[in-house]
Structure formats: structure tokens, C-alpha cells
Specification:
The structure holds two protein chains of two kinds.
Chain A: H1 2-5, E1 17-27, H2 33-42, E2 55-64, E3 67-76, H3 86-90, E4 95-101, H4 105-121, E5 127-133, H5 145-154, E6 158-161, H6 170-180, H7 196-207
Chain B: H1 2-8, E1 16-26, E2 38-47, E3 50-57, E4 71-73, H2 80-89, E5 96-100, E6 104-110, E7 115-120, E8 126-131, H3 137-146, E9 147-151, E10 158-164, H4 184-196, H5 199-204, H6 206-215, H7 224-231, H8 251-258, H9 273-279, H10 289-299, H11 306-313, H12 323-345, H13 349-353, H14 356-369, H15 385-400, H16 410-421, H17 424-438, H18 447-463, H19 465-473, H20 483-487, H21 496-507, H22 515-533, H23 538-546, H24 554-570, H25 576-582, H26 594-600, H27 602-617
Parallel strand pairs in B: 4-5
Antiparallel strand pairs in B: 1-2, 1-8, 2-3, 3-5, 6-7, 6-10, 7-8, 9-10
The chains are: A alpha/beta, B alpha+beta.
Enzyme class (chain A): hydrolase
EC number (chain A): 3.6.5.2
GO cellular component, one term (chain A): early endosome
């Protein structure tokens, strides 16, 4: 799996494209949004990850074919009370991961609401992924894989069940998004110098995660 | 000296009317909600000191015979005592309005073009005019002939005033200089001209120039000497109006120079056991609360008496109660607590199944208790009984204030209190006291937070106008990057030990109840150079600020915040808004009415509304935001 989705060696040229995308994480409180980001960005997992207040911002870079994709990740507070702040974060986002907790049916309902809101109010071409997190607790599951899959297909969402705790499908979901994002000139960031050493470092770092 | 600066804005100084429009209504700021608009004439008038927008009521035109007429300078920089006392004492004397165009940041036309809202440069003062017979188009058209405007990116009805158009006949005006070229001679010439020119011209374009000097790439910046010339006070003894202590009406521009120098405010020792014991009389009453609070403000409280002192600071125990009275009070409060606790404890599963509002609150609490401060020894480990206490107190608080319920952030506010009290009843009542101060942070519509963020912007503008200007220009004027600081009183920024000190300091409400905003200014001050030099945008600023967590020295921050307060307090000519935030006299009133408060956050509210509107319309660009 690592090889399939993992970074590929650059073909010796320094002409690789670098694209930058804004990605926002949305979902009910305590479904594991921050944990997914922490796993993806730092390879860590905190059992008692504290609640997010306001928003957090992190970046991570992945390689897809000949393109380096830099994610600017907005991690938001999940509680309904802070809903009015959400548009500030998803405005202009090219990608979103809507997260629910596979052990909690309510959070799946909430995820659907987020998807609807994004479809209505976010950028029209936004790439949305649905992530059923806490897959390590599948024995306590209350949202069936098939149910979520069917919903995702219906709404043309990328879908994976993930576990920030075991790292299952965490990098995969981000990579799937990176592959689906249009890597046209619009998103190429000309200000980032293409540096072969940095490229290799990124690839090595990324490889360490698999 | 006095005479000259006064005459500038005096009615008797003659001006040329550029444009006049009748049938325009205006409601003076001192009017009550029910007051009706007065009909009058809106004009643009050119004076020797610059162009102004003026409004005169119809029925007093007969009195316009010179200096007797009262002018309400809707100008935040005017000495607050002068404008507010006039207005407060007799609203009828607000006969006319004159606003220097250089004071206006933007205008917005709404209500089917019948309402013209002028937003002043401090972003807090707004003046609205109502076009009663026609729309505002012809007026705004004339306005645009004297100023350059740019439509707001966030709101298509808002136009920002970029710069006043300079009279073509004025020699060596700013338009002659291409400020964006990198020729040093030009800059020097500009400097020498600026120094020799009437200061009015200089000041009207000052902001543009300082922006050039301060925010251009370092390698394109003119030599340090030039920059220093502009940062320091211009030395022009022959021009009395530049003598900061005397000039009137221009403090908006000179405020940086006008702040008194900072005085060091070293921190003190924490309140000791002996001091605490000595503060009580034989019956256990505390008489000199003021002195006690002063000690706590300067140095905090020793660990061993914290659990006792906090009960007073948080209003659970009255300062003047005797030991005996407190024992009785505690008994009553214990009973009350357990009565409320029983209410949720005794709920049957069937009841709960049909009580979704309760269930929602309970679920949120369960989620957050499990992840609050689990690295603290007090809460660490599986099945820690203190987690049960945290849960019980929060659940009981839901029954105490069901409407507010539980909002994320509350468990952060309770955790240190519970760890100090170790007793659920005492912790509950202390938490109630804390929540009484901060419940507006948890407003459904975020209005409490928006208001504070707006007040923070006001203070920052007074202390570091360059930084607040930078933030405005980098999509961060809403100060949202400080949301976490203010919501949970820096709980996520400092260690547990530091938070206890910081909170007890802030609970004294010394030197003002908005001290937490000064703490924010003190922190931002330290980061100012990094933010500006790196030319950070909205995301980088938020990331940088979030990453300051656990990297700050609390004592330094507190000392700086105190020094900033003293500096501001001793500085004359603070804006009314600033004085109001600091609770200083001259800021209208200490207990500013809610309508005034609302107007304070209006700027932000507009911004938020514009933002939400943008989102409603959908962002169709899909392009990576520019960096």
C-alpha cells in the first residue's frame, strides 16, 4: 500500500511542479479531526487530544507523481456553538475532509449536514472526502461501512474508514485528495523554489510514515 | 498657540462649498433610540486645513453667524472631554456635524441607497446619514471627486477611501512623487518638502507614506535615517500645532508621539500566609480589600492559601463576611448544589430519551471531560476519580444554567479551579463566579467574543498603530487569531502553574476589568517585528500565534501589560473608545450602555456579515489565495 500511494522518486530533474491547496477538516466534536491531522503531519497520536478552540493551522507536503502537493490544513472546533465561525475556515478551500466517528451514528448525521453545507456554500469544485474515523473501534461500530460507502458514492465523495490511532488510511485519504485535486497552473506556487534536496527530504520524511 | 489650533476647526474659518445636498437626515449619537432624525443639508466643504463633510440641520440655518455655533466634531481624535461633555450635557447642542475627510476610512451605502454610513479610521466610530428624498448616489459621486476610493473586497456596498485627492494647484504635492520608486533622492526630497510644508498636507498623506516606509520589503526601504525621521516627532518648533501637548483635533495622527514613556512595573511577591491572616480581623472579616487585591495583582497568591483566597476573588465568599457567616453560607450553598446535582442524577433513561437538549449537553461534557488536562497529575491516569468530579460539576452547572448549557472551553475554565479546591461544591460555586464574568464568551452568535476582539483592536491601535494597520492590511483586523486567548483566558498558552497566577491576577480586576486585553497587547507587542518582517498573512499569523503556546514568560507579559496600562492611563488624548475599553474616566461612562457596546463591535459585525455574505454567494474562484 505504501508503494502504491507513496511518494515516487523524482526523475532526476528539478522541474517538478509544486501545488498548494487549502484543506479544511469539519465534523462533530471529538470525532478525531485534530488526531487525523496530528497523525498526518507529525505521525503522532495522543489518546487524550484536547479539544480544539478556535482553529489550528498546519501544513504538510506530499508527492503525487511528478507533483509536490502542499496542504494548508485548517483544523476547526467541532461543537455546534462554533458553527458560525466555520465559513471563515472553509472559504476558499479546495478540499475538505468531513469526519465522523464510526462508533457514533449521530456524528454520521452531522457529517451529512457538513457535506450539504459545503456543497451549497463552499467553492463549487471543492474535493470532499468522507472519513469514518476510529476504525480501530470497529467492534463498537454503529455506522456500517456499506451505509457510508453508499452515501459517499451518491454524493461523489472520496471515502475511507480511518484510524488516527493505528494510522490506518490516514495518509491514504490525504493522498487520494491530492490525486484528485486539479494540478493545473492555477495552483502551482511559483514562489516555492524547486529544490531537489528539499524534494528528497520530503520524500524520505513521507516514506517514514508508511 | 491655543488660538491657532482652535481656529482651524472654528466655524468662523471660511471654507468653500464643493457640494451640497438637502433633505438629509441625521441622528446625533447622544440621541436615544426613539429620537427621530433631524433633516438637514449635507455638504462637502474645502478649508485651508483640508476637506470636510458637514451636515447642518435646516431649522438652525438662521443661527449660522460665525463662531457661536456649536460643532460636533465627529472625530475620534478630539479631546474626549470636550466632545462628550457637550453631547452628554445637552444633546440639543449637537447642532451640526463636521468630519474631516482625512478621518474617514470607508463609506457604505445601504437601505436602497438611502443610508450613507461613514466609518472612521478608528473603525469604531460610525456616522450615518439618511437621504430622505433621493438616493445617496449624487453625494457619493461628489465625494469620489475629492477622494480616491476602492471598492471593498468583502462588501460590494463598501468603498474604502484610499487617499484624498490633492488640489492640483498645490505645488510639489504628493501626487508629484512616485512613492513606489526606489530612488533615494526622491525620498529625501520628499522628506525635506514634507518638513517645510504646512503640516496639514503632511498629515493627510502621512499614513500612505508611513506604510511605504514601514512595510515595503527591507531591501527597498530607504535608509534607516529616513525611517527614524518619521518615527520620531517632527522637530518644528515654529509650528505650534505639532506641539503634541497643545494641538487639538489631530491626535489621531500624533498619538504615537503622545503616549508617555513606559515606566517599568516590576512584579511583586505572592500574597503570603501571614499577610492573608493579618488581613482578617478577629471575626474573620477583610476590611482593606483594596490593598489585598493590589498585592495579588502584583504577585499572585502563595500556593497554600489559594483555595481560600480564590473563593473571595470569585465572589463565592463576600469580603466583608465573618468566618461564622461563611460557614453558614457554605452550608446553604452545599445544600443548593446537591439539590441541583440530584436533578440530573435522578433522571431516568426514559426521561433522557425524550430530552434531547439535556442529552446533547451531557454528550458534550462526556467527550470533553475525557480530554481535559489529562497530563496534569490531578487528572492523569485511567479511572481517575477527579474526572468524575469534573463531570459532576459541569453537569450540575448545566442544571444551574440550562440555557447556556455546556460549551467547549468551559471544562478548561473549571479544571484549574477544581484542582485547587479539590472539593466539588467549592469548585462549583467558584466556577459559577468565574462564569459570571465570562459567560458572554460563549454566546451562540459569538457576539461577546467579537466585541472583545474589537476592543482588543482598539487597544492595539492605540499602542501600536503600525501593527494594527499591518493586521488590517493582512486580513487579520478581526483579530480572530486571538480567539483562543480570550475565550479561555490564555488557558492553552501557559502552564498550569502560570495559569493559576494569571487568573488570580485578572480576577482582581485591577487595574481595569479588561486587563486580559492588555495582556494580549503585551504578547502581540513581542511578536510585532516577526509578524511584520515576515509579512505574514491570515494563516501564518494564526499559526504563529497558536505556536506561542507554552513559550512565553508570564512575568514578563504581566509586567509589560501593567506598564502599557500605566502608559495609556497617563497619556492625554486617547480616543474615547480606548478610554472606554480601559474603564478610564472621559471614556463616556464606566458602565457604558449596551447600545454603545454594540456600536463598538459594529465594525467587526459588518465585516463578519460581509464575510458570511461572501460565503453565501460561494467562492467561485477556487484559486489558491495569494500570499
Amino acid at each position: 500500500m505504501a508503494n502504491r500511494s507513496g511518494p515516487q522518486r523524482p526523475n532526476g530533474t528539478a522541474q517538478a511542479k509544486i501545488c498548494q491547496f487549502k484543506l479544511v477538516l469539519l465534523g462533530e466534536s471529538a470525532v478525531g479531526k485534530s488526531s487525523l491531522v496530528l497523525r498526518f503531519v507529525k505521525g503522532q497520536f495522543h489518546e487524550f487530544q484536547e479539544s480544539t478552540i478556535g482553529a489550528a493551522f498546519l501544513t504538510q507536503t506530499v508527492c503525487v507523481d511528478d507533483t509536490t502537493v502542499k496542504f494548508e490544513i485548517w483544523d476547526t472546533a467541532g461543537q455546534e456553538r462554533y458553527h458560525s465561525l466555520a465559513p471563515m475556515y472553509y472559504r476558499g478551500a479546495q478540499a475538505a475532509i468531513v469526519v465522523y466517528d464510526v462508533t457514533n451514528q449521530d456524528t454520521f448525521g452531522r457529517a451529512k449536514t457538513w457535506v450539504k453545507e459545503l456543497q451549497r456554500q463552499a467553492s463549487p469544485n471543492i474535493v470532499i472526502a468522507l472519513a469514518g474515523n476510529k476504525a480501530d473501534l470497529a467492534n463498537k461500530r454503529s455506522v456500517e461501512l456499506e451505509e457510508a460507502q453508499a452515501y459517499a458514492e451518491e454524493n461523489q465523495l472520496l471515502f475511507m474508514e480511518t484510524s488516527a490511532k493505528t494510522a490506518k488510511n490516514v495518509n491514504e485519504v490525504f493522498l487520494a485528495i491530492a490525486k484528485k485535486l486539479p494540478k493545473n497552473d492555477q495552483n502551482v506556487n511559483p514562489s516555492v523554489p524547486v529544490n531537489i534536496t528539499a524534494w528528497l527530504t520530503i520524500c524520505v520524511l513521507r516514506a517514514g510514515h508508511f | 498657540m491655543e488660538t491657532k489650533s482652535k481656529s482651524m476647526y472654528d466655524m468662523s474659518s471660511s471654507g468653500t462649498e464643493i457640494f451640497t445636498h438637502g433633505g438629509v437626515g441625521y441622528v446625533p449619537p447622544s440621541a436615544t433610540k426613539d429620537d427621530v432624525q433631524t433633516c438637514g443639508t449635507l455638504s462637502i466643504v474645502s478649508y485651508s486645513f483640508g476637506k470636510c463633510i458637514e451636515w447642518k440641520p435646516n431649522d438652525v440655518s438662521i443661527e449660522t453667524d460665525g463662531s457661536e455655533q456649536e460643532w460636533a466634531m465627529v472625530n475620534t481624535s478630539k479631546s474626549p472631554s470636550a466632545s462628550s461633555s457637550q453631547g452628554d450635557a445637552n444633546p440639543q447642542r449637537w447642532l451640526s456635524v463636521r468630519i474631516p475627510i482625512s478621518e474617514i476610512k470607508s463609506y457604505r451605502v445601504s437601505n436602497k441607497k438611502t443610508k450613507l454610513l461613514l466609518v472612521h479610521k478608528d473603525r469604531l466610530t460610525h456616522t450615518a446619514f439618511y437621504f430622505q428624498f433621493e438616493n445617496a448616489d449624487c453625494f457619493t459621486k461628489s465625494l469620489r471627486s475629492v477622494v480616491r476610493t476602492r471598492r471593498s473586497r468583502h462588501d460590494k456596498h463598501t468603498y474604502n477611501i484610499v487617499q484624498e485627492r490633492v488640489d492640483p494647484q498645490m505645488p510639489h504635492s504628493f501626487s508629484d512623487f512616485n512613492l513606489l520608486t526606489d530612488r533615494k533622492e526622491t525620498v529625501w526630497k520628499f522628506v525635506s518638502d514634507m518638513r517645510s510644508k504646512p503640516y496639514e498636507t503632511t498629515l493627510s498623506t502621512f499614513s500612505k507614506f508611513s506604510e511605504y516606509l514601514l512595510y515595503k520589503n527591507p531591501d527597498e526601504r530607504p535608509s534607516e535615517e529616513v525611517a527614524r525621521l518619521f518615527e520620531g516627532r517632527p522637530q518644528q518648533p515654529q509650528n505650534p500645532a505639532l506641539d503634541g501637548s497643545k494641538s487639538d483635533g489631530l491626535s489621531e495622527y500624533l498619538i504615537v508621539e503622545r503616549l508617555k514613556p513606559r515606566v517599568l512595573c516590576p512584579r511583586g511577591q505572592p500574597l503570603s500566609v501571614t499577610q492573608w491572616a493579618n488581613a482578617m480581623d478577629a471575626e474573620g472579616r477583610i476590611s482593606d480589600v483594596k490593598e489585598l487585591k493590589k498585592i495579588i495583582f502584583e504577585g499572585g497568591v502563595q500556593d497554600s492559601i489559594r483555595y481560600e483566597v480564590w473563593k473571595f476573588l470569585l465572589g463565592y465568599f463576600p469580603w466583608d463576611s465573618s468566618t461564622h457567616e461563611r460557614q453558614e453560607l457554605r452550608q446553604v450553598k452545599t445544600e443548593e448544589y446537591f439539590r441541583m446535582k440530584l436533578q440530573w442524577k435522578s433522571m431516568t433513561p426514559e426521561q433522557e430519551a425524550r430530552f434531547s437538549d439535556f442529552r446533547d449537553r451531557k454528550t458534550l461534557i462526556e467527550k470533553d471531560v475525557n480530554r481535559t488536562d489529562r497530563t496534569l497529575p490531578f487528572f492523569e491516569g485511567d479511572d481517575n476519580p477527579n474526572l468524575g468530579l469534573l463531570y459532576d460539576v459541569l453537569m450540575t452547572y448545566v442544571m444551574y444554567d440550562f440555557d447556556l448549557g455546556y460549551v467547549q472551553g468551559m471544562s478548561d475554565l473549571l479544571s484549574p479551579i477544581l484542582s485547587v479546591m479539590s472539593n466539588e461544591v467549592d469548585a462549583f460555586w467558584c466556577f459559577v463566579g468565574f462564569m459570571k464574568r465570562v459567560f458572554r464568551n460563549f454566546d451562540m452568535d459569538q457576539s461577546g467574543m467579537k466585541k472583545q476582539l474589537s476592543q482588543l483592536h482598539t487597544l492595539l491601535s492605540a499602542v501600536h498603530p503600525d501593527l494594527s494597520h499591518f493586521l488590517d492590511e493582512h486580513d487579520s483586523g478581526n483579530m480572530f487569531f486571538c480567539f483562543r486567548w480570550l475565550l479561555v483566558w490564555f488557558k492553552r498558552e501557559f502552564t498550569h502553574q502560570e495559569i493559576m497566577v494569571l487568573w488570580e491576577v485578572m480576577w482582581t480586576e485591577l487595574p481595569c476589568s479588561n486587563f486580559h486585553l492588555l495582556v494580549s497587547v503585551a504578547i502581540l507587542e513581542r511578536e510585532k517585528d516577526v509578524l511584520i518582517e515576515n509579512n505574514y498573512g491570515f494563516t501564518e499569523i494564526l499559526k504563529h500565534v497558536n505556536d506561542l503556546s507554552y513559550k512565553m514568560n508570564l512575568h514578563d507579559v504581566l509586567a509589560t501589560a501593567t506598564a502599557i496600562f500605566k502608559q495609556l492611563e497617563s497619556s492625554p488624548n486617547l480616543t474615547v473608545a480606548t478610554r472606554r475599553v480601559l474603564g478610564l474616566s472621559g471614556g463616556s461612562s464606566h458602565n457604558s450602555s449596551s447600545s454603545e457596546d454594540d456600536s463598538l463591535s459594529d465594525g467587526l459585525a459588518c465585516e463578519m456579515a460581509a464575510l458570511e455574505k461572501d460565503c453565501d454567494q460561494g467562492d467561485t474562484t477556487g484559486v489558491t489565495p495569494e500570499k
